[in-house]
Amino acid sequence: MRIGILGTGVVARTLAGGFLQHGHHVTLGTRDPGKLSDWRTLHPDARVGTGADAASAGEVVVLAVKGTAASEALRLAGAANLDGKVIIDTTNPIADAPPDHGVLRFFTSLDDSLMERLQREHASARFVKAFNSVGNALMVNPVLKGGPPTMFICGNDTDAKRIVAQLLDQFGWETADMGTAEAARAVEPLCILWCIPGLLRNEWAHAYKVLR
Ligand SMILES: NC(=O)c1ccc[n+]([C@@H]2O[C@H](COP(=O)([O-])OP(=O)(O)OC[C@H]3O[C@@H](n4cnc5c(N)ncnc54)[C@H](OP(=O)(O)O)[C@@H]3O)[C@@H](O)[C@H]2O)c1
Hints:
The chain is an alpha/beta fold. Helix content is 35%, strand content 16%. The strands form 2 sheets. The protein has a 6-stranded parallel β-sheet with strand order 3-2-1-4-5-6, sandwiched between helices. Strands 7-8 form a two-stranded parallel sheet.
């Protein structure tokens, strides 16, 4: 597939590498392409452009920017370039405030979520929450003693979630569909829980798995 990625941080780079490894075409979008000059020497097949370039190039768009900048990054990408697109939303609504005893602070409440806000702002785009509740080191081809981990996803469009589940399958994940966009109120805070062992004890090598 053609994948457009908004962002240049560790998540954008990691997922870009994963999509390339699995045979997809990748365009990264940024306000400052110079940030990626070293990365591009390792990944010459990737294209780099503006957010609008990445969004228009992608059949699937990956949103991998700071939570506080998510709305602005989508605005820069251009609403017309997002129309009808599957958007994999990796973001978390982490506030610009320090954690409290290892517990991250969010700028949303439990009756609201970042993905719902973004879905309201871009009603014709098809948002699917994914990759938000695991560290970047385990996003692509995770190898864990407990077997393949579970990625919790949600979103309003069934077909979009099917496409994302197929991509997650390629990346070595089981998928647990939690329902509509409102479920992001539960899926986003999984990031808070996931980060606690890391922030308290520098333990980052874990992932969630649903057992039955
Ligand atoms: N780090 C992880 O392991 C991890 C794991 C799961 C989920 N996440 C989530 O994934 C997202 C990306 O995380 P990250 O650690 O890779 O990077 P990050 O430092 O949270 O974000 C970096 C990106 O944010 C963009 N950005 C910052 N301010 C902006 C603005 N005003 N307008 C437009 N874009 C702006 C930058 O775009 P430019 O390139 O244009 O400067 C840059 O690409 C976050 O929401 C994070 O919560 C992170």
